[in-house]
Amino acid sequence: MKTDPSGDELTHQVALDEPCQTLTQETVGDVDFSGTISGVSEQHVQIRNKISNILQQIELHINQGTPLVTRRRLSWQNCSMESGMLQCTSLSQELQKGKRVAKHRLLLIVRMLATIYQLLTTGTSCTKREFYYLHLDLAQTSACCYAALADACALLEVDAWEVNVFNTAKGLVAGPLLLTLDSGQTIDCCSARWGTSVPLNVASITKLQCTAKVVLVVEKDTVFKRLLEDGIVETFANTVLLVTAKGYPDVSTRLLLRKIVESADIPVCGLMDADPHGMEIFCVYKFGSLAMAHRQQPLAIPTMRWIGLFASDIEVLGLQSVPLRDLELKKIDHMIKRPYAAGMLKHELLLLRQLAVKAEIESLLHITSDFITRVYIKKKLEECLVES
After folding, report:
1. Which backbone phi and psi does 94 adopt, to 5 degrees?
2. Is the peptide bond preceding residue 309 cis, with omega within 30 degrees of 0?
């Protein structure tokens, strides 16, 4: 099932209502803020030092009502395209003046800052779900926890993955890629039959060796497995690196793709369903997501090429299709108005709207069982390599 890409990436403003009381050591927990750090990045050292300053800001907020900085919820209206990426055109942060943060929320934020400090000091990490269970006594719901985490990150002017709190990695990779982690461990992405999991902490990759000539990103896990069954890695030996995020891409998969592009300088192609969800997934990879528009540089891949499935393929190849639902038609109408809707993308959106039908990548299998690998993808990849 396809879900909305926002999820954990959504940022929230601080809930504001009642005044707070002075925080105590009991509130913060048994964290030694005077400790030393060894073997951590300079960025983590800077973040660790900033936590002490933020605690002082919180004290001023409590005693004098000094406003805290929170991240503004972005909309398509205050975003534009810059350097091929989705960027916010207005400040992504603003001051909440004359109001106080609710006591419960502030306690949760301070506890989270303490946990973040511990993660950075010890060089450990956790998933957002684990982070929620670490603060279960204060965060009644996961939504409350993720909102408070977004507030803590806004105060630190970082994103969650930069403080070792990660979304659960969904991505899989298969092909000629060898990763070396800072622990000394090596990961051979050719070794597993059904693909190798993307590392949760992509920043831990110290060396990347890729002999592929092109990266093929497919939308769904089912297509990923079918292509492996068809022997795509062997058919295009030392040519194709296959990647999937099993739907809407998680941060770790996007970070890894960006790292591959920067390190190996090879083209990236996207194969998605011919429906509004598939087209949006491609746009998240290429242009970035709305929720992360304030930090697209380490995530978006503006050079990524869309090789199908196109709305025009439905007619030309006589593919099996099903009618678009009303919500999908409305989604197309919204996507057409987005800043990145131009050129071929806009043309295909309009055509999909006109046809009012959709088709999955698997519909290519109804032509012949090997059509998708030996004909469709082969032709598309050859064109991609020529153009690059």
Report:
1. -150, 160
2. yes
